UniProtKB/TrEMBL annotation:
UniProt keyword Ion transport, yes or no: no
Transmembrane segments: 6-38, 59-81, 87-111, 141-164, 170-193, 205-230
Source organism: Halothiobacillus diazotrophicus
Acyltransferase among keywords: no
Domain Urease accessory protein UreH-like transmembrane: 9-220
InterPro entries: UreH-like_TM_dom
Protein's UniProt name: Urease accessory protein UreH-like transmembrane domain-containing protein
């Protein structure tokens, strides 16, 4: 499977799914500012080290989770013949790209329903995050980001399932890194510009173009797998 294609598809999903991310994680900005003196809450420049630390840790958590998912998927695929495993890998990855493309395009949101899958795990992790609020230092923001990277989110979990088909821990990590970097603009540039960016990503024609691109990647991948199956 073209690894660069998967990376860019995941990045597009992260970017255009950013509106959903703001709804899930936007309250973190309040946690990052509540514990600061009033003068530090006054400017985005003062807040930037906190946002950078939080988002760096959040994306690191995504990348780690992707590595674990990729490793689990690779182990499962090792139990079947290599040739067949590669074809199954292409089909699963392609189908998930299609589903994510439908989400990005605004045509189907069924993937977000899997958020409840991680609710039990989150019950044990969430108290750790509460102990770090309000945030009074970039170090606290960094620790909070590591915790909040495991927040139940249907979009994140869907990409993690996608990462199961990546074929290795490294490729699973790369896929989740691409997704995390895609979410960065919406969560890092909170404020007036973020509102404009959010408005841009909400435009139907923008989402349709991005969704069509991701879906096209997926269909190409599935088609490639089918062609290889037919050839053998």
């Amino acid at each position: 499977m073209p690894n660069d294609m998967t990376f860019w598809a995941a990045l597009l999903v992260g970017f255009f799914g950013g509106v959903h991310c703001i709804g899930m994680c936007g309250g973190i900005v309040g946690a990052l500012t509540f514990g600061l003196p009033a003068d530090k809450r006054a400017t985005a420049r003062q807040l930037m080290p906190y946002l950078l630390a939080y988002n760096l840790a959040r994306i690191t958590s995504y990348t780690l989770a992707g590595a674990i998912a990729g490793l689990i998927g690779a182990f499962g695929l090792s139990l079947i013949p290599l040739q067949h495993a590669q074809l199954y890998l292409l089909i699963v990855a392609g189908l998930f790209m299609v589903l994510m493309g439908l989400y990005v395009g605004g045509w189907w949101f069924g993937l977000t329903r899997i958020e409840r899958v991680g609710s039990r795990l989150w019950r044990h992790i969430e108290p750790l995050g509460r102990k770090l609020m309000p945030v009074r230092s970039p170090r606290q923001a960094l620790l909070l980001g590591f915790v909040w990277g495991w927040l139940p989110c249907g979009l994140v979990y869907s990409v993690l399932i996608w990462a199961l088909s990546a074929g290795s821990a490294a490729q699973g990590a790369l896929l989740m890194l691409g997704f995390g970097l895609g979410t960065l603009p919406n969560l890092l540039l909170m404020g007036a510009f973020a509102a404009q960016l959010s408005a841009f990503t909400r435009k139907p024609w923008v989402r349709w173009i991005a969704g069509t691109a991701v879906t096209g990647f997926g269909l190409y991948t599935v088609g490639l797998a089918i062609w290889n199956i037919a050839a053998h």
